[in-house]
Amino acid sequence: MSGKSAGLSPGELSTLLEISRVITSSLPLRNMFETIHAYLSDILTYEIGSLYINEKSRFNLKAGVGVEDMALTNLSNRAGTNYLLKKIKGTGRPWRSSQVFKLEQIKKHPFYVQVLEPMSILYTAGAPIRNGHQILGSIHLGRKPEDGDFSDKDMQILEMVANLLSPAIRNIKIKKISWQLDGLAVSGSDRKAKNNSTAPSNGAGGDRQMQLLGSVSSVMAKELRNPLSGLKMSFYSLARNFTSGVMAQQDLEQMDCSIKKMEKTIRFLLCLSGDIHLQREWVDINDLMDEVVRTLGPIMDPDVVIIKDYSSLPNVYVDREKMHTVFGNVIENALDAMPGGGRLRIITTENQGRVYVILEDNGMGVDAKIKENIFDPFISNKSSGVGLGLTICERIVGSHGGKIKLRSNGGKGTAVCIDMPVDAS
Question: Is 10-178 a CATH 3.40.50.300 domain?
Answer without folding.
Answer: no
